[in-house]
Fold this protein.
Amino acid sequence: MIRKGNLKDGRVLQQDKEAYRKFLCDWHDFGTGERQNDLNRRSDWSPEAALKGRWLEAEELFKNFNALWTGKGFIADGNWAYVRGRRMERRRMLSDYANPKVSVTEKAVNTWKIITNYFSDIFFGFGESMFRMVMTYVVTVFIFAWAFTSNVSILEYGQALGVSLKNMAGMDSDILRDVSPLVDMLNVIQTTIGIILTGIFGFILGNKIRNQ
């Protein structure tokens, strides 16, 4: 059975445009690609037309690998294929912008899906990366600490870091009293983000422990 280690550099042929074009052309010229029906009429299949669907094919391959490997108990390989499948999904939606057959409405919907896809990949690795999750948490703490230092003149950066950490855990800080509405709103926003990130962190950690 094909495993992750059988994929050179963790890629499928469809990800290399020129190599895939050569494969399709060779298949068309020397293989069974020259298709004819019982009336001896050629099909309208062509390598260049098939090349346009390469990201969809790559997406389906990785998602099928995910289902296969997860079903066989190769959880790590399945999780890896899931992430690659989501990234190929993003490439497919991006390529649809140049496809006249895709409606304007579908392209508009895809725009939102692409944004959320990027967001989920960068900050959480689609729920599969502990490193990205921890880095997102740490960066959030430092960003809000900087925001508090900029808007509350009595705070030093070290104090602001303490306030930011407490906010992530939903704890009040005695340092901040009688603050401006902006700072109060920052507290609410960060506490909300902290609760969400803690929930996502628990989900990822639980998956990692379960799949060991």
